[in-house]
Specification:
homodimer; mainly alpha; 7 helices; 7% strand; globular; DNA-binding
Chain lengths: 169, 169
DNA sequence: TTGGAAAGTCAACAAGACTGACATAAAATC
DNA sequence: GATTTTATGTCAGTCTTGTTGACTTTCCAA
């Protein structure tokens, strides 16, 4: 009932971006993000964890030895909020918190073997969906996907993206 | 520190999609979605509403006269959850709920003038960001963006996408 | 006509975000 | 050496938004 005349053809003339085309992009983000989080959400239910735990695990895996403060910057939540999540992950033996050698105020965070196992389970589910989407969309689409997403980020986040400190204790 | 050798070049050979490339896609979704919701979130603060209100307003605008049940299917929440949001929007005079003519159990939802005004404010902010991202990424990227997002949705949602009932009372 | 299903509402609860206040330890600065 | 700043953690309370359970009204079909 829409996009008539230019079937999926936003590409032709960017100067003629209609509100309708933009609205479709907006809704696509909404529905796609739901799909994107659906698989991990299902897995997390079995462990009584939520998305907050997933995010912490993801970024600790990605930047082993990161500090609490570092993680706060990436995740964009308050320390109280992150602390609740980290506490349960540490209690449950998925995350290890080591006091910094140079600066003893800092805590460096690492996944334990159990934490790494959950990380693999979660990320494998997500990668599988991402891989399927990439395949379905085709080679050309993937580069465009990443370019638009990157342009949609807030500038600070765009900086974070691909530049996360690893800081080994 | 990554993607070395194929600067933003996932396009070449999809058979060689590395975990690293997929991980970047996953994080791009995470950071981009944050940017995507940031502007509306700021606006909503002024009205003491949240994202749930935004979503309801968006889809009522998009499909005027839709029923509560319809909206439930689109939003993927429980009717009790949606009801709380709708109640405040109706109390505040942003949404009007009309009893169905054919089926008196149904409520058909419409934006009032005030509701439409907030919708415009919210969607204009979101369109502005989307437009900027599209421009920055370039014409070719936009089509790819939409293709990957669509492929990432759950199949039911892909059906909903672009096919929402308008059902006038 | 009556019993079940469907649409919507109310109440109570939980997760996970938030703010604010405060504590401790260590580092940095004066 | 004393003071201030930084990094982290904790307690208490609030808000949004999700949940389940129980209930009313309405419709429809046996």
């Amino acid at each position: 009932m829409s996009d008539r005349g230019t079937a999926s053809g936003e590409g032709e003339s960017l100067l003629f971006l209609t509100d309708e085309q933009l609205r479709k992009g907006i809704e696509a983000m909404f529905f796609a993000y739901r799909g994107f989080t659906a698989d991990p959400d299902r897995i997390l239910e079995n462990y009584a964890y939520g998305r907050a735990h997933h995010r912490a695990i993801h970024f600790i895996h990605r930047a082993p030895g990161t500090t609490v403060n570092n993680l706060l910057g990436i995740l964009g939540v308050t320390k109280q909020s992150l602390n609740r999540v980290l506490r349960t992950l540490i209690e449950d033996g998925l995350v290890e918190s080591r006091i910094g050698k140079k600066d003893k105020r800092e805590r460096h965070l690492f996944l334990t073997e159990a934490g790494a196992a959950l990380e693999r389970e979660l990320s494998e589910a997500q990668r599988t969906r991402m891989r399927a989407a990439y395949r379905a969309a085709g080679p050309g689409a993937v580069a465009g996907f990443r370019q638009v997403l990157e342009a949609m980020m807030d500038p600070e986040m765009r900086r974070q993206f691909g530049t996360i400190k690893e800081n080994g204790s």
